[in-house]
Design a protein that fits this description.
Layout: H1 4-17, E1 22-30, E2 34-40, E3 43-49, H2 55-67, E4 84-86, E5 89-95, H3 106-120, H4 130-142, H5 152-172, E6 177-179, E7 188-191, E8 194-197, E9 204-206, H6 208-212, H7 217-220, H8 228-246, H9 256-269
Antiparallel strand pairs: 1-2, 2-3, 3-5, 4-5, 6-9, 7-8
Amino acid sequence: MPDVTRAMAAATSIAVSLGLPVSGATVLHNSNKLALRLTPCDVFARIAPVGKEVAQFEVELAQRLAEVGCPVCPLEPRADPRVYTSDGFTVTLWTYYEPVTPDVSPVDCAKALELLHVGMRKVHVPSPRFTDRITEAEEVVADPDRSPELADADRVFLGGRLASLRRAIEKRGAVEQLLHGEPHPGNVLSTKNGPLFIDLETCCRGPVEFDLAHVPQAVCEHYPNIDQGLLDECRQLVLAMVAAWRWELGDEFPNGRLFGEELLRALHDGPPWPTLDTLTSSPA
């Protein structure tokens, strides 16, 4: 997010208006959303420009998932559970947890993800399908104005791979359910209450293997009843989709272009398909 100062001021003013004591704000993460720790009230604030988020969907879904016992980060209990707006930004307020370990262990992450999936099967909300994400990636690849630095040969290769993987996964006819959408390590908090998932705006419907394609291999080894063939196809799909987004004009992902090139090489090199955390240009 380019205007961090204004975004921080918006979140601070909202928290203060709700009677929460704020004298400082620490940036925890800055990408398409800005994540802050507000102190001394210890609130986890997530901020995005108005119109570039699905905050209401995320807030409502977080409440529903918490009600059925899913391991998700809860909303801040001292504020009404809703989306706040200020100075062109939307702000949502969540419970802040001090990390208890730098990373969540693969065993604990797999158990938490399985528990999340079990709870998600009990929640029925209108949500996009995972194929909508493929369409978004295909549109970036197909439009030279949106991906001007993508070479023609790579454009043909990447577009073809996205289309063929869509067909292959659809052909399997796997059972689909509500998913997190991007349960990679950056979206899992290590807390005293165990691993908790954040960033629910990417939730979509699809096979559980689509979620598992975002996590390290060690996590998959502890998740039961995986269809390995489907997981391999979903891993390729994730590599191809992320590659498309890294070539989009205006992408501000750290080392984005290098990461895009590395993802294309991985797709060209063939199996075994790497997980995102093993690629050298990934922040993970």
